[in-house]
Amino acid sequence: MPWDIIKFNDGNQIPGLGFGTWKIPVDDTTVDQVDQAISVGFSHIDTAQSYRNEAEAGKAIHESGLSRDDIFITTKYSGLDGLDIETSIRNSLKNLGVKYVDLYLIHHPRLAVPDIPTAWAQMEGLKNAGLVKSIGISNFEIKDVEILLASAKIPPAVNQIILHPYVYKKQAPLLEYSAKKGIVIEAYSPLIPVTQRPGGPVDVPVKAAAKRLGATEDQILLAWIKAKGAVALTTSSKKSRLEGYIKAGDLELSEVEIKAIDVAGAAGAQTFTAQTFVRRAAFVLFAGAVGLSVCSHFGINVL
To answer: Is 44 annotated as belonging to a binding site?
Structure first.
């Protein structure tokens, strides 16, 4: 298998590449796209309460014919409809048609109500009850993780964050901190430099690496994510692209290429910062949570 299997701090493990279901239309399109991803080799499906497509993702998983042990399922507590954490996971399990999920995340620190320690204790209860195998967080900054760890009995297995070259400089301290604490980083929106910011500084080193390796630019960005030790989450409706994403696990960037991408990302980061995404995130997430709109993975246009 080209993509690494990454071990969690609780002894469980996760495939290094995952198929994200954010922004897939909530109908048979979700079923078809998840089915297609599984058919080309994805064994890691990522969804969330607020995507409102858990049932469709679950249908595709069941129709794949894979045994439950052969598929890794992530979903997230998004505070949808004001429901509490335990009610939310039970609803998610029903929607997905499974008895447990492999990974359950708090979608954003502001959703940890009434506070992070209380919410995390509830997450620990879900793990102890066998409803989830591993628990984690999403969009938590260092200060949020420190609050969590101060009272946690079970540390988070994962922190799922936005990660691509244009936000790497800002996120690097969090990656370093997480590595020290044994928390796996999952990277969402890794392809933004080619899907949303073509023509930026990152294009030059990415294209050079793609030429050397006979690869596509999106494959190079996924290889860069892998080089940072993170799990890559991505999506596409095109089978050929998904097949390319699977093959990207075989690519190995040189240290010079990785550094060149880092430097180019920092050069383009001034007008494209992680803080911008967080501001958009908070607005769309909470709008979705109170029923004003569907949270589309924090309002970030990805693919």
So the answer is: no
